[in-house]
Amino acid sequence: MDETQEPQPAQVPHDLVAQLDRKLDATNELLQRMLAEVAKTPSTHAIFVDAGYVYAAGGLLVTGTEDRRSFDLDAEGLIEAFIDKARTIFADSRLLRVYWYDGARRRIHTPEQQSIAELPDVKVRLGNLNANNQQKGVDSLIRSDLESLARHRAISDAALIGGDEDLVSAVEAAQGYGARVHLWGIEAAEGRNQAEPLLWEVDSQRTFDLDFCKPYVTRRPVTLYEQDGSAPSREDVRFVGARIAATWLSERGRAALADLLPGHPYLPGPVDQDLLIEAERLLQYSLRGHADLRRSLRDGFWQHLQSQY
Q1: Phi, psi of 257, rounded to the nearest 5 degrees
Q2: Quick check: helix, strand or coil at residue 12?
Q3: For residue range 51-99, what is the model confidence (pLDDT) as tens digits?
Q4: What phi and psi values does residue 13 have, to the nearest 5 degrees?
Q5: To 10 degrees, what angle do helices 51-63 and 75-89 make?
């Protein structure tokens, strides 16, 4: 054979070519069916509500205070308003559910949280409350749910209502699996009530103003204490202090008591404020300006706690 001749490529059998063509056609048909199915499948969204943020921001905006005991929140009405807003924004999407994150002593539902949990399409998830009524574990619950739903392609969009910088990791985790995260907030009376790093990470932002929030937040009527000379006795106030201490101890446990005792005779500010407000509610009498009665109240509170140690 002439060494200058190039070798001829091997001929592919006609049957093999036909077989490959059939496989390619089948693959293309399968891909087209899958794409058509995906196009018919509606996208899904979920709403993630940090209740602590909503109470604090909504209460401050409408009533001027973050103290939950000073106002009532129509959670059912507000949740329905969030659902309606999401229905408008995600017009071609269906709602998976609303996740309502809150704190409770020993993660036991309060009556209010129970009623929220009974609402359709709402799941209540509880973190813990420490001795100073601060939520613990809520951010990690939000991250766990957001990441899990995004990873399993259960949602395409997430509306996140919160403001804590710790939520940044939850946003990043969900986005890493392809979900879009939209941050919703409540108008701040002044400044901002959402962390800037959180604002930077999300895909979109929306703020609800006073007119939106006002129908769902109502200041509780303030009892007007008439100082008509019928003030409670020191013994009555001391008894109320002991009664409140018993409730305090049953809710928080002996570990919280051990943390409190070294400060005797002084109470941490939040505990002292809670004690005063609850005592005035039980007595139906204002102790403001009555230093002697407030001392009796603290004496009764401490006396009961020390008797249990």
Answers
A1: -65, -40
A2: coil
A3: 999 999 999 899 888 878 778 899 999 999 999 999 999 988 999 999 9
A4: -55, 140
A5: 100
Q: Measured between alpha carbons, how far is 32 from 35 in angstroms, rounded to an integer? A: 5
Q: For the chain, what percent of residues have pLDDT higher than 90?
A: 44
For position 133, what pLDDT does the model report? Answer: 59
Determine the Cα–Cα distance for residues 197 and 129; give it in Å rounded to an integer. 26
Quick check: 128 and 104 in contact, CB under 8 A? yes
CA distance 53 to 279: 27
> For residue range 224-283, what is the model confidence (pLDDT) as tens digits?
444 455 778 888 898 988 888 888 888 888 788 888 888 887 888 788 888 888 888 888
Question: Is the bond into 13 cis (omega within 30 degrees of 0)?
Answer: no
Give the model's pLDDT for residue 121: 94
DSSP one-letter string for 205-265 = EEEE-HHHHGGGEEEPPPP----SS-PPPHHHHHHHHHHHHHHHHHHH-HHHHHHHGGGTT
**Structure-token pair, residue 155:** 């949602």
pLDDT computed for residue 35 by the predictor? 59
Reading the block at residue 269, the tokens are 């500010």
**pLDDT tens, 108-119?**
888 888 999 999
Instruction: Quote the CA–CA distance of 13 and 131 in Å, as a whole number.
Output: 81
Separation between Cα atoms, residue 50 and residue 198, nearest integer Å: 14
List, in order, residues 6 or more apart from 102 with CB less than 8 Å away: 51, 52, 113, 124, 125, 126, 127, 135, 138
